[in-house]
Description:
Number of domains: 2
Strand content: 5-15%
Distance between the termini: 26 Å
Bound molecules: pyridoxal-5'-phosphate
CATH topology of the largest domain: Aspartate Aminotransferase, domain 2
Number of helices: 11
CATH architecture of the largest domain: 3-Layer(aba) Sandwich
Radius of gyration: 21 Å
Shape: globular
Helix content: 25-40%
CATH class of the largest domain: Alpha Beta
CATH superfamily of the largest domain: Type I PLP-dependent aspartate aminotransferase-like (Major domain)
Amino acid sequence: xxxxxxxxxxxxxxxxxxxxxxxxxxxxxxxxxxxxxxxxxxxxxxxxxxxxxxxxxxxxxxxxxxxxxxxxxxxxxxxxxxxxxxxxxxxxxxxxxxxxxxxxxxxxxxxxxxxxxxxxxxxxxxxxxxxxxxxxxxxxxxxxxxxxxxxxxxxxxxxxxxxxxxxxxxxxxxxxxxxxxxxxxxxxxxxxxxxxxxxxxxxxxxxxxxxxxxxxxxxxxxxxxxxxxxxxxxxxxxxxxxxxxxxxxxxxxxxxxxxxxxxxxxxxxxxxxxxxxxxxxxxxxxxxxxxxxxxxxxxxxxxxxxxxxxxxxxxxxxxxxxxxxxxxxxxxxxxxxxxxxxxxxxxxxxxxxxxxxxxxxxxxxxx
Length: 367
Ligand SMILES: Cc1ncc(COP(=O)(O)O)c(C=O)c1O
């Protein structure tokens, strides 16, 4: 069996370091908002090249808190995509704002910058691009549009730890970058976690308050906040894993290279990356109209796969009230029928990648 993702293989390599960190935290007597969280914020900010980092309880919360810190709420509109995790759109709704969903680019499956301006109206406050699969969105074009219209950019970097554009880490282009540490992510906790980066110390301070009931130093709520704290155990684990992140990213790059080579003759579309950008290869997503056949073959060959994501957000029952009919985002809808994520995690062995390639080639051979 070749799994689509397996955290245990990576964990075994760092088990000693993680267990030492756990013992340290448990013995410290401080489990919430303590030195591990503060150190992790400093270390992640340094890694991403941001001035400030604010750790929160999840990637979803990171987006909610970022939007709230920018004063975005009821009556406001936020431009984003439907081809993403439900969390992106859910977070916009959670602050009471209305998501304006833009179709994705046919090749990159990321927000199509050419379609953004048509969605900007008097209530638009922000653009929320998603660096989906670890591939950077067209952040320069998005930034230029935002500047022209006086909008904030909040980057959804949940899948993009390690993705860079011209050497600069995603999340540092807009006002706030939002990360998730869900266990499958490039930097994953052993539980939930999230974080916001920003260069703006006032925004950082507001986010710190919002994650802890809006408290000031005397624990008097100055803002209506919530409980969204990253606990010390997850922070300590993430500090260990951050030290190994670049090694994991280079393994992902190697695996992606092996897939690109091994599948170059297969009858499917392969992911690409613009020159001057670093794809973080969170997921390796191929596209084929013969997906059912490919799935059948992978299943028979005991190879795991994923579909990210099978139903675009605007077609999910919970979001029908947004009023997008089938056909309203044609590229998004078409892509949802043909995407398939192949196994991708740093410890995937070269012979496993070869076996996946062989299975894919076999499945699509007679087309
Ligand atoms: C693109 C995207 N945005 C946001 C999130 C939300 O992160 P979390 O699951 O940590 O709340 C995720 C992860 O699930 C994601 O993939």
